[in-house]
Amino acid sequence: MNALRAPILLIPAAGEPADGWHRLADALTANGAPVTLIDARADEAFEARVRRVRDALAALGRPAVLVGHHGGGAVMTAAATRRSAAHLIYVAGEMPDYGETVTDNVTPIGAVAWRAVPSTYVLCARDRRFPLAAQQRVAELRATTIARIDAGDDVATTHAEALAQIVREDAAAEPYAS
């Protein structure tokens, strides 16, 4: 298998412990991908999280693959641009459009990265916070491609390898893959 050269930015839901994402990070780094895990502070405002993701993208200096879970999807939607992101992967994630509000933000979304950047929506069949039917509606309307994992809210822990495989496949399809 080819090593992935694109950096990967993991964005858990607000308040979700980052340590639950280490299994996914480990599975990706085993293939040579540089991985940055954004700490999802529960007390942090949406705009502050967006700024932290933008800062992390700027520090990378090249387009990254972003993986956002639940509200982390909305954060990457607002933070990424065509220049900073090569691919967006929404994991049972909020995927807002212009003017929509999201769970932890009362200000309508202005920037919408998925309109300019290829995206994959990963349906999590047993997710309790975002019902499958709602995930499917969003994915069918907005995502470039759709994948499915029979997992719940803890997908990055319980199904890390399956999720890593989706990330690898999407990354390999992009022009930065070796």
Q: Which keywords apply here?
A:
6-stranded parallel sheet; 6 helices; 6 strands; alpha/beta; 178 residues
Order of helices and strands: EHEHEHEEHEHH
- Roughly how much helix do the residues carry, as a percent range? 25-40%
- State the oligomer: single chain
Strand content: 15-25%
Largest sheet strand order: 2-1-3-4-5-6
| Structural class by secondary-structure content | alpha/beta
Runs in which pLDDT lies below 50 for 5 or more consecutive residues are: none
User: How many individual helices?
Assistant: 6
Query: What is the mean pLDDT?
Result: 88
For the biggest sheet, the summary is: 6 strands, parallel
Measure the end-to-end span: 10 Å
Would you count the extended β strands for me?
Answer: 6
Broad shape:
globular
User: How many whole angstroms does the radius of gyration measure?
Assistant: 14 Å
List the helices and strands and how they pair.
Elements: E1 8-11, H1 22-29, E2 35-37, H2 46-60, E3 64-69, H3 71-79, E4 85-91, E5 119-124, H4 132-142, E6 145-149, H5 155-158, H6 160-173
Parallel strand pairs: 1-2, 1-3, 3-4, 4-5, 5-6
Helix pairs in contact: 1-6, 2-3
